[in-house]
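Need fresh eyes. Consider my entry:
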Amino acid sequence: MAERRIVALSAGLGTPSSSRMLADQLSAAARQSLQDAGHEASVTTYELREYAVDIANAMVSGFAPPNLEALINEVIDADALIAVTPVFTASMSGLFKSFFDVIDKDALDGKPVMVGATGGSARHSMVLDFALRPMFSYLRARITPTAVFAAPDDWGAGTDGTGTLDRRVRRAGSELLALLGDAPAPAPRQNPNESLPFEQLLAQVQARPA
């Protein structure tokens, strides 16, 4: 049976980060759901803060530096995506949004996605429905019905697995399994340079060392 590959993205800025903690919980739940269903599963987690400069350069230059391009390809080639952002100024973080701004608008077409967010108050949970869902819907991703928000009071509550956060995380993991069960096979990717505008191709040539 083919292994299911999941990529998890955390846009947390600190170390440790509550966004990374939530991403790890969601990853573990997704992996467990797949394994319980008899599938092999692997999860690779990336911290977007490590790509912040590359993301900014891609925003202004129109093309991704090699490290960022490799991450984008990992996201595109994954069977499913887990994406977690902290809440800043009543919305997703700028770093999180910028990463998805530099991805081709068709890159996530049909991809199963589980989303999560962290914030200082449960009032910020509306970000899931008013910011994250619309963005991933625009990208035509397939989003789990359950999106998970974690406020400070959620951490450590019900450490025996009975807390509301744990239940939401497990439910989201089961829903990701259901989406993977009937997810369409990813289409073969074309050479990334085949359909680029001339200005972007020229910028890549000029950026290469002599």
